[in-house]
């Protein structure tokens, strides 16, 4: 077993992976071709290509990865290559439904034809008004009207002559009045006044009344015959009007039908337009003056006009161009940044009319699904899931391959409301969802439709291997970035420093961060500092300045905590030795900045029943992972010391002066060290901070944030004065994660600070106490004076004390052998 601390001490070269700028095959990025594809994401790029090209149903794409990893950019770059090879999709228009006015019809047209049809219909309606007015003002129409009127008059004349003669025979006269035909009795050739009629004998009045009844009967018969003649005349006039209307508009429709001879839906619509104009020709005769429509009551006409949204009857012949692809080249790519319900599926706009909100088919507006139809729609999963009803609307559209525009009132209103119900539009598009890997897993597990709708996953790795090829790709990325933004080019030293920073972001000596948005920000900021310093090209010092300035903008909390440590408010010892106390290190993540903060961890032990207590756990200030790590301590003690004697111990462990929630198991080895120190009575070196998790067998395991943890403790030691005895113990498996700053590496090289890598608790306790941990001999005994021997002796005394205590009190019970917390 290794006992010398120098055997565990890391060399300066192990603390950071540096890139020699001289190994780069260029002087500046001006010599490097700009990047055209993604860096180091072959799996994701292949998945994107597959998902975008496959035509089978349900093969929509979910692009998973961390924000800033270039997920969306990779999709857009792939689409730039794919979309020009796809035919431009069709136009879509909405037209008035002459059979059901509340259900506008959707018509699909070749790209560019939608706008043309709308223009042609506008010209047609204007021409129809003009030609219909001209037809009804023509001499031919007046001649037909005069002929019909003459014929009717000639047919009515003998009927009235016959009626007059019949009435004369009955001593009655008939007179035409505005209110109808009146019959008047006559005596001696003169009409009988009312007062004279009342003075006549009753018998004579009865005789006159009898003759009057016969006359009135004849009047009714005659008037019925006249009504039938006038009805026939009205119908003949209507037929004449229709013929005149047809003769006026049919020549106009010929060219429209010729233009759309291959569009059966348009031809059907034009036939309906023709029939509707013929049925409502009076509106054209009045040139849209708003007069009543023939065959409808005035109230019905007003209701009809209000339903359309304005008192302009001609609006029903307009064409609402919903989607116009006349200027498109290839398949559309739509990125919807605000995928609300209406922005996704479309909407119907309303406006006020006579105190009410009204709409019509011309107010139907497209959504992202309509605009992307025939192409690709890119959405961010987190955004659409935050919008009420949007996710369900998207799923319905994909499941049934149609975009149905519906008001949200259909979902939330307690009673149905009268509104338009546009015909749904058939969808043929590919949806690309961009989101985190965690969100993908949640949707896959909780939404039964998700696996059927999004069958392709493009998973972006958080890092890429540090290889010569990817180093060159990073240089190409910088070249593209500076060209796009018009910045100064980077020299090879600046590129090397940027790549080292990418490794630091990933906290790995053989991997680079794939979050290229952060790298892009450093490129922009380094370009600024180069300009500020008057450099023609960006130097490594400019990159360092950009990194320092970015940290300085975010590290106010770090400075405040360092001040609290320096003035003693937060008790941290960096020299000397203490029993049951050691410095642990936690990582505080502020979002845009993470740093290591040392924290004192202490333990107290006493005679007890095998209980190990974490104060943070008891007061619910620790998370489940920390609780797990703490419970492992009991397993270690039982396996190491509890085979032959009961663990009659009571112990408490806590993070001193910690008032925030704690989670993670990176302090479990630290807690075990202070527990062993308290049991053995051995002091621990306060100039050494510790991080690492532990398993039940005493193996030290890797943790996160080792770079920030080392730098955090180094800053405290440096502020108080480096002694050459200070340093940090980390798990040996974390050595590959070290990307320390230059000042830390320089201090290690000068022997002022140290980093030790341990694989077991034994190695760590030896560093902290200066004593060997000890191993059992063939008789199962630890060597005299070693750490484990001292711990075991303390536990034996506790066990004997517990046995003595229980015997003295007359209680025949056996102390517990297992520990709990």
- How would you describe the shape? elongated
Q: Say how many strands there are.
A: 30
For the residues shown, what is the average pLDDT?
Answer: 87
Which percent range fits the helix content? Answer: 40-55%
Lateral arrangement of strands in the main beta sheet:
23-24-22-21-26-29-30
Low-pLDDT sequence parts: 288-311, 811-821
Determine the N-to-C terminus distance: 32 Å
Structural class: alpha/beta
How large is the share of residues in beta strands? 15-25%
How does the major sheet shape up? 7 strands, mixed
Which radius of gyration do the C-alpha atoms yield?
47 Å
By DSSP (H or I, 4+ residues per run), the number of helices equals 29
What are the main properties of this structure?
821 residues, alpha/beta, 7-stranded mixed β-sheet, 30 strands
